[in-house]
Amino acid sequence: MAAAQQRGPAATWTAMVSRAYDHPRPAVRFGDLIWTGRELLDRAAGAADWLDMVGLEPGVPVPALVATSADALALVIGGAGSGHPLAPLGVRMTAHEIAAVVTATPSPVLLTQPGFADLAGQVACLTGRRIATVPELAVSARPLQALPGELAAVLHTSGTTGLPKPVPMTQRRLAARARVNGLLCELDPDSFYGGSAPFHHIAGLGNIAVALAAGALVTGLPRFSVEGWTLLRTLGTTHTSMVPAMLETLLAAGQARHEHLRTLQYGGAPVRPDTLRRTYEAMPGVRMLNMFGQTEGSPISVLTPEDHREAVAGRTELLRSVGRPAPGVEVRVAGAGPDGVGEIHARADHFFRLDDEGWLRSGDLGRTAADGYLYLLGRSTDMIIRGGENVHPLEVETVLAAHPGVADAAVTGMPDERLGQTVVAFVVPSDPAAPPDPALLRSYTRARLSGFKVPVRWWFVDDLPRNANGKVVRRRLREPYEGGTRA
Predict the structure, then answer these.
(1) Taking CA 322 as the corner, what is the angle to CA 388 and CA 213, rounded to the nearest 5 degrees?
(2) Architecture per CATH, 8-166
């Protein structure tokens, strides 16, 4: 039975990676360290041997303080192929935040790279877990194997409204995700993927796992910076991912050019029309993709390179959408009202957390246009009810973000005796010394949205409260706003 389950060209993610790197060509590059494909697999096998000796229960996810590095890749591959799936945690979080997640796991052990030993010690004191510090990984010829239903790794949600929730990634579903994303991003053995998202994030390990399954050369940065982007450009990376705010930072610094980049994947927010135009000027041949999804399953939908070319040619409204369903994805808008807005449900083989009928209940509100494009309107828990009318913050934020005087914006509801709630905007000005006139912002928004959706109060702030994954923490948007200026 086990042998039958393992047959096929890509029955498991471990099988995909093992086949992709059975060669002597470069596979991993971090600084001066370069491993061939065969060396990566041998180090991963050595990691599997070490994990066996740590005293872990087979199949139990192992919380780990690791950052993007060659050793981290070997640990994930070795853990997936030895029944010790890693659960990377955010190394920029506080010890108390990490401890809350670790306490919820059954593992008695916390893995850590040496660079995070102090943080691990604090977490161990808070949780009673035993620390296992990752050594220099030995080389082993051990074969790495797994069954389709076994865990390959575990990621956690961002925890914007509570404790981060574990998302188990089975071998079969991670393999399916690697096939879908690899096809959309055109990743292959001739590709060179360079990542800058935190390793514990779906945009970090999640995207690296796709590149590994495709057999690409892989590198990464500890965090995004203009200097880091320059390094990726110098190395000759062909694929990367980022959020639009990072792209705007590069454009502002005059450093967005990248002669070798073939595919730029982004998500988390729409890209502005002017940002897209300037990106194409800096990188004329780049393929732009907006992938909509979440840790529990992605991509749900895709705004394709062709869509982006149409947008820059004049159909800028496409940039307010998240495209159409990704290959193999079925999407429905559940509980839609007269305005067509409801919760987005989706199902596909590459999603990780599903209900009994196979649907991923995203918690995101949206609507589908007649041409099949999906438009997001925010989280169901974020909705503002103003005088009986529903206001979706993301819809207002998307409009505000397109204003040239706005660098960033968040919208939330505040209590109102007459209307129940009213709409308040928190704006990061493009020029802090000369914030835009609220009256002009109001008229700009009103020209594009119904009157009840227009913010009635405006706060100009230096930045927005975000968690370690970069998402706005709306519960911290309160009046009066410390450090903000009300206009």
Answers:
(1) 135
(2) 3-Layer(aba) Sandwich (3.40)
Query: Contact, 471 vs 378, CB < 8 A?
Result: no
How long a stretch of residues is the chain? 487
Residue 332 pairs with which residues in a beta bridge?
345
Q: What is the pLDDT of residue 419?
A: 81
The mean-pLDDT minimum among 1-5, 120-124, 249-253 falls in: 1-5
- If pLDDT is split at 50, 70 and 90, which confidence band does 417 have? confident
Which residue ranges make up each domain of the chain? 8-166, 383-486
Q: Do residues 200 and 264 lie in contact, with contact meaning Cβ atoms separated by under 8 Å?
A: no
Most distant CA pair in the chain, distance: 71
Residue 167 pairs in a beta bridge with 155
Please determine, for residue 1, whether its predicted confidence score (pLDDT) is greater than 50. no
323: left (phi over 0), alpha (psi -120 to 50) or beta: left
CATH 3.30.300.30 fits 383-486, yes or no: yes
Q: What share of the chain is helix, strand, coil (3-state, %, to 5)?
A: 30, 25, 40
SS3 173: helix
Helix extents (H) in 326-411: 393-401
Six-digit token pair at 270?
């729409």
pTM for this model (two decimals): 0.84
With cut-offs at 50, 70 and 90, classify the pLDDT of residue 475.
confident
Q: Taking the CB of residue 348, how many other CB atoms lie within 10 A of it? A: 24
